[in-house]
Design brief:
By secondary structure, this protein is an alpha/beta fold. Helix content is 38%, strand content 13%. It is globular and about 65 Å long. The chain starts with 9 loop residues before the first helix and ends in a 10-residue tail after the last helix. The protein binds glutamine. Glutamine binds at residues 130-133, 156, 176-180, 208, 318, 428.
């Protein structure tokens, strides 16, 4: 059977595999062929090994033909951001310091994907240690946006978003500390989902800021995001912050909201007053609000008064945690050791050569905010503001079921356009407060800007509000004006 890999979803591929219309070798082979053609331009993958992929696909086909398939998804390829460990593979975090390190174990999410028979389809590029919003901080390569090769794909999970958008793979995993799943998803026209903090185990995710980090899926549609979340979520004895599962199956009944009567959508007034919100993005937001109204949803105004402090608060808390987490990469416990005469020199040489500028900037800032003289002024204050930000959301959810905002103030920007770090930090102005509050949020492609680039909307749900959030997102996706987001790359 002939098929176009670039618009296949997990649920459609599953149906084709179940009906024996395609095999996993054909499916993965088609993606490999497409990736061979496109990778010289897109550069989404840090590693893509044909032999490894085909041997997993063959094993899956053998299971299906002997009647021992592991799940309906057996044989479907998923790419993995290069900060999630896969046993026997390198996990570089796009950093030189981890260039040759091979992981001795699987991340919990990888174990769960393997249990269901998913094919692990290479590792994707990212900003070094997930610090950035454009993938330009990768020590290895710059990933291009499949919609316009002169633009960035967003970040830090830019490789994952670009690989799915370009149709090089069915779906991918990302991680989101302040927007790193949702912002690149928006810039590349795909779905990106950050579940509630703790929903998905972080065991095997190389830590950036442990109280904010969350793994999540990047997919072609909302149903696929639900499927992968179902596969990956649940309590894990190896991650003390993971949450006990509920019995909900997110993909089940996902299309059950024919309309949105009785659903209240909160519009936070502060988010629409942000300076630098592009007029085209604003127009797309207005069109999306109309889609919700036409579906019968009630729009209510809500207020998140402390959100104006979110970026500042994030850069105190995230850098503090990063400085502690990255201390282990010293050439002795972890990391490629540089030759030096004594211990101190070994640290200096190893960390000096191994980390890029942005990572160093954050370690220095984080060390400063944690230093004994300034701890209370910055870190303690930051934690207090974090609580206020979380309280704002809890207050808002008394009046609404989900909150609607833009994902990114602009569409994808040009390489080098945000060379000033502060400009780059503001790219996450709409996504960062979600992580500080710990709640769940999704990016759904909504519109095409007059510059030809995709625009996503963000829907935010309360703690553990995934089921309702995904159903509402699905209803929007089915009713938006543009049906498919496929770049001509
Ligand atoms: N862009 C933000 C940062 O640089 C968020 C990154 C992320 O979510 N990993 O920290």
């Amino acid at each position: 059977m002939s098929f176009n890999p670039e618009n296949l979803t997990i649920h459609e591929s599953s149906r084709l595999l179940e009906e024996k219309k395609i095999s996993s070798v054909e499916l993965c082979g088609a993606y490999l062929e497409r990736a061979k053609k496109l990778e010289p331009k897109v550069k989404a993958f840090l590693k893509l090994e044909e032999e490894q992929i085909i041997s997993q696909a063959k094993a899956s086909d053998a299971r299906r033909s002997s009647g021992s398939k592991l799940s309906p998804f057996d044989g479907i390829p998923v790419a993995v951001k290069d900060n999630i460990t896969v046993k026997g593979q390198t996990c570089t975090c796009a950093s030189k310091i981890l260039q040759k390190i091979v992981s001795p174990y699987d991340a919990t999410v990888i174990g769960k994907l393997k249990e269901k028979g998913f094919v692990l389809f290479g590792s994707t590029n990212m900003d070094e240690f997930a610090m950035g919003s454009s993938c330009e901080n990768s020590a290895y390569q710059k990933t291009a946006n499949p919609w316009n090769l002169g633009c960035v794909p967003g970040g830090s999970s830019g490789g994952s978003a670009a690989s799915v958008a370009a149709g090089e793979v069915t779906a991918a995993l990302g991680s989101d500390t302040g927007g790193s799943i949702r912002q690149p998803a928006s810039l590349c026209g795909v779905v990106g989902f950050k579940p509630t903090y703790g929903r998905i185990s972080r065991y095997g995710l190389i830590a950036f800021a442990s109280s904010l980090d969350q793994i999540g899926p990047i997919t072609r549609d909302v149903e696929d995001a639900a499927i992968l979340t179902d596969v990956m979520c649940g309590i894990d004895p190896k991650d003390a912050t993971s949450l006990p599962g509920t019995n909900e199956i997110f993909a089940e009944g996902i299309g059950s909201f024919g309309d949105l009567k009785g659903v209240r959508i909160g519009l936070p007034k502060e988010f629409f007053e942000v300076e630098g919100l592009d007029s085209g993005v604003r127009k797309s937001m207005e069109k999306s609000i109309q889609v919700f109204k036409d579906l019968g949803a009630e729009m209510v105004q809500v207020s998140l008064p402390h959100s104006k402090y979110a970026v500042a608060t994030y850069y105190v808390i995230a850098t503090a945690e990063a400085s502690a987490n990255l201390a282990r990469f010293d050439g002795i416990r972890y990391g490629n050791r540089m030759k030096a005469d004594n211990l101190i020199e070994t640290y200096l040489e190893t960390r000096g050569a191994g980390f890029g500028d942005e990572v160093k900037r954050r370690i220095i800032l984080g060390t400063f905010v944690l230093s004994s003289g300034y701890y209370d002024a910055y870190y303690t204050k930051g934690q207090k503001v974090r609580t206020l930000i979380r309280n704002d959301f809890q207050e808002a959810y008394r009046k609404c079921d989900v909150i609607l905002t833009p994902v990114s103030p602009t569409t994808a920007f040009k390489f080098g356009e945000k060379s000033d770090p502060l400009q780059m930090y503001l790219a996450d102005i709409f996504t960062i407060s979600t992580n500080l509050a710990g709640i769940c949020g999704i990016c759904v492609p909504a519109d095409i800007h007059e510059n030809g680039l995709p625009v996503g909307i963000q829907l935010l749900g309360p703690d553990m509000g995934e089921k309702q959030l995904l159903r509402i997102s699905h209803a929007f996706e089915k009713n938006r004006a543009i049906k498919e987001f496929i770049p001509k790359v």
